[in-house]
Design a protein that fits this description.
Helix content is 42%, strand content 15%. It is of the alpha/beta class. Helix 11 links the parallel strand 8 and strand 9. Helix 1 crosses helix 2 and helix 10 packs across helix 11. The protein is elongated and about 80 Å long.
Length: 346
């Protein structure tokens, strides 16, 4: 008989499914195996009664939360959101829920979020960190809460991480630019975090290996920000142009690429006729909607998120089994996409 009044409780579900309260709890929390037939009967009862399990409250009481905290550096960056969608695609198949918070690349805010997640006894944390030092994670790691860094690593740390091949990918794309005859490359650099420093190192290494002069006047700080990149490009072309005009812009993320394109259009410049442009990560929509199609490094952001979700679940499984392997670093390879924004000037 279906209850008609009052709040639906776990006891109501148990009676409806003709199982014990303990069995309903096991299905909801996923912390003990039950047969497929029994699990299906319990889940059917949950749907029929519109029962909402208080998973977080249960976790606070038992110390075994079913919540995974995801810390994003930005929730307006399309690349970051693709990563989070990748994480979600994995966690939605598990018995864990995902909660997302953004730091706006503020290390102080990130530290506060880590404390908040620790106090709420989240099961694990996946963090697109703004930090450059591992001590920000000391407290949460002492509590034994699994931590996975996504996209951005911490040098010389033993923290699990899922990263792109930033150095190698930028090196390869710089070589492609050089093969097309370009020598003066205007670079829009990012922040002093692992992605920014590794991409810049890859660019410099390719220039040196090809014995090309490195003109620091062409290296602008775009801070991974669209508005900042736009201002920097406008300011550069309004200046005296020492050493000659560049023939291509290489931007180290999608937002800076868009900012550079905005500036070029404001200046009345055509892409790639007047200025070639290359991006780290994809820009805009698929052709033929978006023209020109930007030559880019596609870093498989969605897959990076998936790998981070899988690694977090693996660590949780190991913790339940009272074991944990050594820290791991998963590298997700990028690919170069030609597009039509890089002119061959040979």
């Amino acid at each position: 008989m279906t209850p008609s009044t009052g709040n639906i409780t776990i006891r109501d579900v148990a009676r409806y499914a003709k199982v014990s309260v303990a069995t309903v709890s096991r299905v909801v929390n996923g912390n003990y195996p039950v047969s497929r037939e029994t699990a299906a009967r319990v889940n059917a009862a949950i749907r029929a009664l519109d029962f909402t399990p208080h998973i977080l409250a249960s976790g606070l009481k038992t110390g075994n939360s079913r919540m995974i905290g995801v810390i994003a550096s930005s929730i307006i960056n399309p690349t970051i959101m693709r990563m989070i969608k990748g994480v979600e695609s994995i966690l939605e198949k598990s018995n864990y829920l995902m909660t997302i918070s953004s730091t706006d690349n503020d290390v102080g805010k990130e530290a506060r979020l880590l404390r908040f997640f620790q106090e709420r006894l989240v099961a694990a944390v996946i963090d697109i960190t703004a930090a450059t030092r591992a001590d920000i994670f000391e407290s949460i790691r002492k509590r034994g809460i699994p931590l996975v860094l996504l996209d951005r690593g911490i040098a010389d740390s033993d923290i699990d991480a899922v990263l792109g091949n930033n150095f190698d990918a930028t090196y390869a794309m710089t070589e492609r630019i050089i093969e097309k005859g370009h020598r003066r490359i205007l670079v829009l650099k990012g922040k002093n975090i692992s992605t920014g420093t590794e991409r810049y190192r890859g660019f410099l290494a390719a220039m040196r290996d090809h014995k090309l002069p490195i003109d620091r006047n062409l290296h602008l700080r775009g801070n991974f920000d669209r508005a900042c990149a736009r201002r920097q490009v406008l300011k550069f072309f309004a200046g005296p142009g020492r050493g000659g005009r560049p023939s291509v812009i290489l931007a180290f993320n999608q937002l800076m690429t868009e900012g550079a394109m905005e500036a070029l259009y404001e200046l009345g410049m055509n892409i790639p006729g007047d200025m070639s442009i290359v991006s780290y990560d994809t820009v805009g929509m698929s052709p033929p909607v978006f023209k020109p199609v930007i030559a880019c490094i596609s870093q498989n952001s969605y897959r990076m998120g998936q790998q981070a979700g899988k690694l977090a679940l693996r660590r949780l499984s190991e913790r339940e089994a009272a074991g944990r392997g050594k820290s791991v670093q998963v590298t997700v390879e990028s690919e170069l996409l030609e597009g039509d924004s890089l002119l061959d000037i040979n």
